[in-house]
Design a protein that fits this description.
Strand order of the largest sheet: 1-2
Number of strands: 4
CATH architecture: Roll
Helix content: 25-40%
Distance between the termini: 65 Å
């Protein structure tokens, strides 16, 4: 099984390891793949993708405020401060 995120299609990054004498040898940085179940199917996604999925699920359920809701709350708070002065 290849080390690719099945939702986003992201793969490994490539770079160089540098020794003390500055010799470059190729290395790869693999993804942190996690196995999850979505609709009864097992898929492998990166930890970063999993974090995004969880955040979007919370926002959809209303447990996490959206950016618009945060701004509206801040505006209401500032308006309340002005009226109390």
């Amino acid at each position: 099984m290849s080390r690719i995120d099945q939702l986003t299609g992201r793969g490994a990054n490539f770079g160089h390891s540098r020794s003390h004498s500055n010799i470059a040898s190729k290395r790869r940085q693999n993804l942190n793949l996690q196995t999850i179940k979505i609709d009864g199917k097992r898929i492998r996604v990166s930890a970063r993708t999993l974090k995004t999925i969880k955040r979007l699920a919370k926002t959809a359920k209303g447990e996490l405020p959206t950016l618009k809701q945060k701004k509206a709350a801040k505006r209401a708070e500032l308006a309340a401060k002005k009226t109390t002065k």
